[in-house]
Amino acid sequence: MKKIIISLLVLSVVACKKNPEKFVNDEVNAKGKTITDSSISSRTKITKDQALKKINEDIIQALKDKNFKKFAEFIHPEKGVRFSMYAFVNPKEDKKFSKADFIRYQPTRTLFTWGTMDGSGDLYRATIHDYLADWVYSKDFATAQVSLNEFQGKGNSLNNVKEIYPNADFTENFMKGSEANSGMDWKCLRLIFEEFQGTYYLIGVVNDQWTI
After folding, report:
1. In this structure, are residues 152 and 174 in contact, taking their beta carbons and an 8 Å threshold?
2. From CA 136, how far away is CA 143, in angstroms rounded?
3. Which superkingdom, per the lineage (predicted)?
4. 82-132 pLDDT, tens per residue?
């Protein structure tokens, strides 16, 4: 009889050890009712600020890695994305792509006119790849100071982001200038977002720096 009891105990211990984490994501309340994963998730839903911080980090990393297929995933599915070379957003002249067109042309060597260069007035023409790699990510913005809906970079060009995107949120990735240049060689990258069906998408990419 003792041998039978010992055998049953051993079997029961082994059975418990087979699935030690089976219910690890469940909780039981005071009434003994099981609280599921979805219930837990609803209590720990991320805030708007957290969501924007995360998408900003993901986009910056995609730019740093030159992973422009990944970058395309963040483009607004209906509004597309507009690129502005400087702080002043010009809806009539700034280059804008639908998500489909961005995906279509990004791998190609097609040249686009993105705007005019400060000082010389020359047209800036480049492929999507080169514009993103050489102009948009001209500094290592992965190490920048990040702010939400606040401007850190203030130059001598008109900043009309809030007027053009009145219902949007934006992040600013700011790289301060060097002492050797009295701080005037600062640069920043602003990413403009709007919510669509519960998710934030990119609708604008604005570079800013000291202009002549």
Report:
1. yes
2. 15
3. Bacteria
4. 999 999 999 999 999 999 999 999 999 999 999 999 989 999 999 999 999
pLDDT of 151 reads 97
Q: How does pLDDT run across 58-77, given as a tens digit for each residue?
A: 999 999 999 999 999 999 99
93/169 Cα distance (integer angstroms): 22
Per the structure block, which two tokens stand in for 157? Answer: 């060009």
Measured distance CA(62)–CA(53) in Å, rounded: 14
In 3-state terms, the chain is what percent helix, strand and coil (to 5)? 35, 25, 40
Residue with token string 């297929």 = 69
Q: How far apart are CA 11 and CA 180, in angstroms?
A: 75
Whole-structure pTM value: 0.78
Q: Which amino acid is at 126?
A: A
